[in-house]
From TrEMBL:
The organism's place on the tree of life at top rank: Bacteria
Protein name: DUF402 domain-containing protein
Source species: Lentzea indica
Length: 168
């Protein structure tokens, strides 16, 4: 799996001097499993961007790998680092089958750039997050932001939060 993650990184966030709109992660971690009850699942920045990516995923439990790093923001104190997730991979097949796939087809180059935060969720989880704060964001986003910042850049397993939204 590690080899596949870095192969995907080389494709979507190549090392300099290659140009990339995505930041190259420093490391990968298994962030947990995405449990899909029904599809579609959407990766988006709700209420900040227009839409996101929706995917039809099979029901079941799927591992989620997160590529992340600590980066100094431009034009700010170079000693201050922000934790940042730069790449998310949810393999739906065996790594060897994914590696053997033809990546030079339309749609495989799409990148969903994130503004501030992103959420991976289904429609029921989105509805379960209501009502939202005055600024329009779900309260779990505010809480996750606080937890992530409190951990600091040395807490690399804390650059994301898994939130369980109970749905009826």
């Amino acid at each position: 799996m590690e080899k596949l993650l870095w192969r995907l990184t080389d494709k979507y966030a190549p090392a300099p001097p290659a140009y990339s709109v995505a930041s190259r992660p420093t490391w990968f971690d298994h962030a947990g499993d995405l449990v899909v009850v029904n599809s579609p699942i959407t990766w988006e920045t709700p209420w900040l961007t227009e839409g996101g990516f929706s995917h039809q995923l099979p029901a079941g439990s799927h591992p989620v790998y997160v590529g992340s790093g600590a980066y100094a923001p431009l034009d700010e104190d170079p000693e201050v680092f922000w934790p940042s997730v730069t790449l998310v991979v949810i393999p739906l097949a065996e790594p060897s089958r994914i590696a053997a796939a033809d990546w030079n087809v339309p749609g495989y180059h799409d990148v969903h750039l994130i503004e501030d935060y992103a959420v991976l969720w289904g429609d029921e989880a989105m509805r379960a997050s209501l009502p939202h704060d005055v600024d329009g964001t779900p309260s779990f986003v505010r809480d996750a932001r606080s937890d992530i910042r409190a951990g600091g850049p040395q807490d690399r397993q804390g650059y994301w939060k898994n939130v369980l939204a109970a749905c009826e």
